[in-house]
Amino acid sequence: MGIYATTTSVPYILVNFLKGNSIDTDSFGATLCSHHISNAEAFVNSHLANRYSMPFSPVPPDVRRMSEQVAAYHIIKSSIYQDPKSKNPYLEEFKNVFEQLKMYSSGKLPLTYTDGSLVPTLSNNTIFSSTENYAPIFALDDPESWERDIDEVDNTESSRG
To answer: Where are the domains of the chain?
Structure first.
């Protein structure tokens, strides 16, 4: 059973995939779905963990949707489309999810909750330098021109007393 997607959501995603369109009447189908849901959530989390705290609580609707679409792709791929000539109808959605995950991960696309508020990002994803207020040393192209900012040198000396 997943956190973002569940086996009970499968009949809504893949209508008539399960026997009787219910997890109660198709235990093998439910087990297959559960396996792929867990993998789909791990896939989504691996792309978003660098920017957001895991696991999500509450779960943003796009995270739920993307997990369901990735799971649907793999469920169909593993059960029906063993023939390499057959095209998985969820392949395009899978590709779209992958692109969206890259945009969420990079911050180009904001991740929101149902009410439209932004999902907070990790606060420790920025590294600060103790010399950030001075001219950079190694940003210069020629190693012979690598020189410490004179203000930095003076401030360091005066702080040492």
So the answer is: 7-106, 127-161
